[in-house]
Design brief:
Bound molecules: ligand 2P0
Radius of gyration: 20 Å
Order of helices and strands: EEEEEEEHEHEHEEEHHHHEEHEE
Largest sheet: 8 strands, mixed
Shape: globular
Length: about 350
């Protein structure tokens, strides 16, 4: 890390990412070290923009968030505390004690069940480094982002397709690029079936993972699946990628359903979509599912099939709306501030 000139105000934009191979289970919950490597693609319609400003004019730390379709509002609670914990780590590194104002804006509906932790923590971390004149390379930035608490955020630092290497220490656990955002014209159709907040957080899910008798079996089969997924991306083998992401989504949800206590994230429509995709594939229309810690389905397809798949998906009873995403760059600094 190098210390440069402090500009004290900076803005970063960062995407959410969809995991093809899921991060599920932690080896170390303080250092956020995962039990397995995970692989993801950044999604371009689910962005967080964050401006931070350090100044003696602020008498206290202020965190404002503007959720999609809502008014900008000062927020308190767990999320704000997490963001400020990351700010405190950076204040120490930069040896500054000025108060901060943070304004964060999401480009996607917060009730779409897409966790904004990845985009929010990666945008905040990048903006902090710039404002405080701390210069990190991509690897160090990914590590600093991981330490914010949302592990999946460390993948959003990387452009395009990323693999988070689990490592065995804080210095060896970070994300690297598999391919950039222009490598492959894939799409992620987020199919929203339920707009409620999830009942059990991913954080709790991570802690429960080891209570599943089958968790060890998942970890055993993962290296092979990770290898094939990486290969499928590099060689643009869509059918292989599809098989791998479906296997991994089912494996993760099998762990949640067999944890003690069990957690069921799917609802009836989730399963209807899975069945429909399998039927359509028999007729040559290729879309594969993956599902995060909630009932909404991410349909991974080739861009040429977006329209057909979206039309058919919207006809399934219980589907509320869809969000179309393409692969995109990771976190970046922008000139235009939010305030
Ligand atoms: C992942 N997930 O690899 C795994 C798969 C969700 C399922 O890491 O919502 O980003 O703040 O608990 O910390 C989600 O964990 O999300 C996650 P929240 P976080 O993407």
């Amino acid at each position: 890390m190098k210390k440069n000139n402090r500009v004290l105000k900076a803005t970063a934009v960062s995407p959410a990412n969809i995991a093809f191979i899921k991060y599920w289970g932690q080896k170390d919950s303080k250092l956020i070290l995962p039990c397995n490597n995970s692989i993801s693609m950044n999604i371009d319609n689910c962005l967080t923009t964050t401006t931070v400003e350090f100044s003696p004019k602020y008498k206290r730390d202020i965190v404002k968030i503007k959720f999609f379709g809502e008014k900008e509002k000062e927020r308190k609670g767990r999320r704000t505390n997490q963001l400020l914990t990351q700010v405190d780590r950076f204040r120490k590194m930069a040896e500054i004690d000025w108060k901060v104002k943070i304004l964060s804006r999401n480009s996607f509906p917060s009730d779409a069940g897409i966790a904004d932790s990845a985009s929010a923590f990666s945008a905040l971390t990048f903006a902090l480094t710039k404002a405080l004149g701390l210069e990190f390379n991509k690897k160090e930035l990914s590590i600093q982002t991981r330490l914010a608490g949302s592990g999946s955020a460390c993948r959003s630092i990387i452009d395009g397709f990323a693999e988070w290497k689990k490592g065995n220490s804080s210095h060896s656990s970070y994300a690297v690029q598999i391919a950039d955002e222009d490598h492959w014209s894939l799409a992620d159709i987020v199919v929203v079936v339920n707009q409620q907040l999830k009942e059990v957080s991913s954080w709790r899910g991570h802690q429960l993972a080891e209570t599943s008798f089958y968790f060890k079996a998942r970890l055993k089969e993962l290296p092979e699946r990770v290898k094939k997924t990486r290969q499928a991306i590099k060689t643009k083998n869509f059918e292989l990628l599809g098989q791998m992401i479906e296997q991994d989504a089912v494996s993760m949800h099998f762990i949640t359903m067999t944890s003690k206590p069990p957690v069921f994230y799917w609802n009836g429509t989730t399963l209807d979509i899975i069945q429909a995709l399998r039927r359509w594939r028999k007729n040559g229309l290729l879309g594969y599912f993956t599902i995060d810690a909630g009932p909404n389905v991410h349909v991974i397809c080739q861009q040429k099939d977006i329209k057909t798949l979206e039309r058919k998906l919207k006809r399934i009873s219980g589907v509320k709306f869809t969000i179309i995403n393409k692969p995109c760059r990771g976190a970046r600094i922008v000139r235009k501030h939010l305030f």
